[in-house]
Amino acid sequence: MNQLTGYVYLQKPAPTRAVANDRKHTTPATPTPSGDSLAPVPSVADTPEVAPRPIVGRLLTFWLEALAGRRSLKTLRRAPFTPMALADLERTIAREKGNLTASGIKSLHIQPGAGRRTRFCASVAFGARVRAVVGTLSWRRLDPRIRKPQRTHAWHVEVIQVI
Questions:
Q1: Rounded to whole angstroms, how far apart are CA atoms 53 and 124?
Q2: Which residues lie closer than 8 Å to 24 by C-beta, 6 or more apart?
Q3: Long-range Cβ contact pairs of 57-61 (< 8 A, separation 24 or more)
Q4: Sheet containing 37-40: which strands, arranged edge to edge?
Q5: Domain ranges in the chain?
Q6: Model confidence over 3-38: pLDDT tens digits?
Q7: Among 21, 22, 115, 118, whose CB has the most other CB atoms within 10 angstroms?
Q8: CB-facing half-sphere around the CA of 138: CA atoms within 13 A
């Protein structure tokens, strides 16, 4: 198969040449078949492929505790939940009126997403029943006024839904 000129073929990202004075700020770039670099892509530290399992489990546990009434919604407003996710949770609490009391997460599966998003699916015990809980997380920049100095980004819950 002949390669067409002007097209970038799928290859592992290669780092750009480091500048002598500033080696720590280099980012990987997409190489062309000739070895030249095109536009830089976000660094690996800025764009993780998948949300770490402990983080997703912790955020899901917070959400389930709020759904069961064991945690107030005020505490979730300080956690990395989008306003849309909190509004959906308030509607779910009002609709179910205490009928959903989760006793524990049975399994958790995390699916890599496109770009800065990832999806998850969990099996959660609600009394004698086991139901699926699905959701989406996004990798977002933290507010510089309230963020911790060592972190610039964090996973935020966009949507969680009980099926």
A1: 15
A2: none
A3: 57/105, 57/108, 59/137, 59/155, 59/157, 60/105, 60/108, 60/120, 60/122, 60/124, 60/133, 60/135, 60/160, 61/105
A4: 14-15, 28-31, 37-40
A5: 1-41, 53-162
A6: 667 666 565 555 555 544 444 444 455 555 555 555
A7: 118
A8: 9
- Please give the single-letter amino acid code of residue 100: L
Tokens 């009394």 locate to: 127
Residue 44: per-residue pLDDT: 46
Look at residue 57 in the predicted model and tell me its pLDDT.
93
Q: Is 127 left (phi over 0), alpha (psi -120 to 50) or beta?
A: left
Q: Give me the helix-helix angle, 53-68 and 83-96, nearest 10°.
A: 40
Q: Residue 16: what pLDDT?
A: 55
Coil, strand or helix: which one is 35?
coil
- Bridge partners, residue 108, by sequence: 122
What is the number of helices (H) and of strands (E) in the chain? 3, 7
DSSP-assigned letter for residue 23: G
